[in-house]
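User: Could you walk me through two proteins back to back? I'd like the raw sequence and the structure tokens for each, with a short line separating them so I can tell where one ends and the next begins.

Assistant: Of course. Protein one, sequence then structure:
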Amino acid sequence: MNRIYMDNCVTSQPAPEVLKAMKPYLEEKFWFPGSFISTGEAINSALEGFRKTIALPLNAKANEIHFTSGGTLANNLAIKGLATAHSDQGNHIICSVVDYPDLLTNAAFLENSGFEVTYINADSEGFIDLAELEAAIRPETILFMTTIVNHVLGTIQPMDRIKAILDNADHKIYYHADAGQAFGKIPLDVSILGVDTMAISAHKIHAPQGIGALYVKSGTKLGQIIHGVRRIDDLQPGGLNIALIAGFARAVDLTFEDFASTQTQLRELSDYLLAQIEATIPQVELNGPRGKNRAPHNINTSIDFIEGEAITMMLDLKGITVATGSACASQGLKPNYILMAVGKNHIQSHGSMKFTLSRYNSKSEIDYLVSQLSEISTELRKRSPLFNAKK
């Protein structure tokens, strides 16, 4: 069999149609945008079309889409930009202990820069504590940020209830969302979400790596974080790869041409995977919520008494790529901070396996994965002192 890839939350396989759409901009249309000459005007026109394509499923305006070199830079531009632009109105920021590392590292940077940050807790399924959010708001609060779909658990935060809390505050609180795991997986309408800024990434939806976008609501002021020559965008001066942007736009077309079917396919695959794991392997626990409150592509389980790192390496030898815990937090074999924050112990955290699916996966791949996972789990448990002590 060809390699089975189920780590799509980290990156996904570029679609053939995406590679085809990129090719002209790598060969004959390699120009930068510009005025007065045909080559530059042609790229200007192409970029406007790409912005419209990406804005459409978000119910945004084309001029509210700013291309960046990825989701991480989009998060940085938004968070630092909002904080610096509005620091004269207050110095207090709110996020949660289960947010994506982009948000948490920016929060730490802002703390070191003189801002105050309140970190709200989450429940056992990864939903942030809305009572804590409401209680944390104070007159000097200027920014709340959240991760729409949790990158480890797949938990979809209750965005409507968050919006209501922020709207009920007695002053403007700017609202940033990381949609890296949400874009292309669940519906995102910026007018309903109520966000001021939102970061999205291309390579999670079968587009190339190295490109992303930041939605900035019309009229929202951001401080300038990067300085240089304006080529494509004011927020990220300098050059951006036009071919990558073309691929991004084509991937958006493919994802949203029948979005209901895209969601249904992912949900059916993930439901099937979970059912097969639970039917085949004893003493397995689902991490995060079941059903509609979980992103359709994410299944995270803890397999008791054995290390996820060992499972991951043994599956790799079988031609299967998966993740243990969070790919952004597993360095150094430390327990996953998300799982620990929602009340899991060290054993459950270390036994965590995350499977994130794409439209290129199939039930036959899942069957093979589960059969290998079952064999590996049985073998590792034979060697496990924790498992043998439990017996």
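----
Protein two, same layout:
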Amino acid sequence: MPWIDVVILAFIQGLTELLPVSSSAHVIVAAELLHENMSKPANSLLLVLLHTGTMFAVIVYFWRRWRAEFLSRWLDFYEYARLVFVACLFSGFVAVPVMQVVDHILSHGQTHASIEVLFHKLNWIAPALAVAGLLIIYAGLREARRPEASGQAEPRKVSLPQALAMGILQGFAIPFRGFSRSGSTISGGLLSDGRRAEIESFSFAIGLAITPLAIAWELRRVYHTASKAGLAVHWGPVLEPGLLGMVCAFLAGLLALKWLSRWLEQGRWYIFGIYCLAAAAVVQVLYLRGW
């Protein structure tokens, strides 16, 4: 892939990975417009590096907040880690059967299909974006009407029901490109009466927890696909542009997190939902035009 395409995709991925607008949808559409196939092993390896860049952006951005919330005391860490584990466990309970159903639908009950086939199905991405947009709009408008939303409420820990709601929604976001992970989990937390700052922090904590697993899964898939085709996987051609892309994704991710936090705290969360609906319309038009 040309270096300029790597930089473009890195900034798109870095911004949209951490904003509630679905990075997968944006990267897939951008790649299609650049005539790049993101399911190719080399491009999949590139995506691994880009996701690594955004993972470090999350750590750097939230480190001070997490240290104050749960990293300074063992008991606080244990309670927080327990909630993260439960949320991610329920994400798995939801994601695995949903992926099996999607796999069956894509394969039409015959040849085994990979969930990554969704990388090129804009007709699946558009409705997923629309559903995410409606969820974000509803959660944002409902939360803005809460009496405590306009005041300076005292910090409150994430509850078990809130963690479960966010974990379940994260499970649906894993297989469906376009159903934003951060958008769905933060909206789920808001709908279960969570406070903005605590819900945002927990959303990215559970996202960070599954990121290494997602990276490992992607690497396994790349090597499995290459071995079936009798091909060797070479990091060399990907590493240099990939490292540049990782840095760009890291910087874009920090910018995105500042943007998200500001709008969430200002009660403008619903605007991201409006954007998702507009993006869904654009993706649907592209699909109807043969992309």
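The chain has a mean pLDDT of 83.

Let me know if you want the two compared in more detail.
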